[in-house]
Amino acid sequence: MGPRVVHRLLRPVTLTLSLVFVFAVLLAAVCAKESDYYELLGVSREATTREIRQAFKKLALTMHPDKNPGDSSAHEKFLKVNRAYEVLKDEDLRKKYDKYGEKGLDEQQGGRYESWNFYRYDFGIYDDDLEIITLDSGDFEAAVNSGEIWFVNFYFPRCSHCHQLAPTWREFAKEMDGVIRIGAVNCGDNNHLCRRKGINSYPSLYIYRAGQRPEKFTGERNRDNLVRFSMQFITTKVTELWQGNVFTEIENAFSSGLGWLITFCSDTGGNKHSCQCKTLG
């Protein structure tokens, strides 16, 4: 009997290899898909810079590698979140990302981050204070030239005097709410802005009025001094309220958005100048 020839069917093997190859390509494509920075931070595409900072801080306090020493992937996960924040907090980078995606950005952006303690104690000192508006390079000029009076605190996150001032600045902001606008600029995040404004020490406190040069506060930084300094720049109009106009005037005040200081007097003998007063803000 001659040699036996065995014919092998190669088609199924070829088909199997083809399927494996296709699967591998699809898997690689999925892995290579760009992460959506807004989704990483859990914010909408219309989120304000303040909302982006607040969202990032919450994630930093839970995802930071310092808080997850047993997770070998914590560093890489946090790098992605940090990169998303570094891009979206910057007006120019955010525009590039919105238009071109990650391919329009510098690959090194967001490659470094701070310690967990920094995010817990130093990051965004005034972000949670409703009466204090945190200003950035993108909105600073529009704010201080809006026609309203702004008192702005330029601070640096690692400045001990800045942290010492914070409780006083919050108390002052609550007292002046509706009278002037109280702002804060983080010079750690807005170095170019602070340099343009000539800020070389922290904290630096300036009054801004549209069309006029800024006025620097140089006194002792306590609430009473801050109030007295601010009131120098406020022009007032005194309106006498009586039964016939009180509701109309107050309604007009609310609709205009202007702050009012109302003094209630009890007549003590018909002399207006000797009345006993109680003032409400």
Structure description:
Strand 2 (150-155), helix 8 and strand 3 (181-186) form a beta-alpha-beta unit. This protein has 281 residues and is an alpha/beta fold. The protein has three domains: 37-122, Orthogonal Bundle (Helix Hairpins); 132-231, Glutaredoxin (3-Layer(aba) Sandwich); 246-280, no CATH class. It is elongated. It has helices at 11-32, 37-41, 49-63, 74-88, 91-100, 116-122, 140-144, 160-175, 191-196, 223-231, 246-256, and strands at 132-135, 150-155, 181-186, 204-208, 215-216, 262-266, 276-280.
Features:
7 strands; two-stranded antiparallel ribbon; five-stranded mixed sheet; 281 residues; oxidoreductase activity, acting on a sulfur group of donors, disulfide as acceptor; 3 domains; alpha/beta; Glutaredoxin
In short:
The chain is of the alpha/beta class.
CATH-level-2 architecture of the largest domain: 3-Layer(aba) Sandwich
**Cα radius of gyration in angstroms:** 30 Å
Quick one: CATH superfamily of the largest domain?
Glutaredoxin
Q: What is the strand arrangement across the widest sheet?
A: 1-3-2-4-5
**Broad CATH class of the largest domain:** Alpha Beta
Instruction: Name the overall outline.
Output: elongated
Number of strands: 7
CATH topology of the largest domain: Glutaredoxin
Q: What's the helix-strand series?
A: HHHHHHEHEHEHEEHHEE
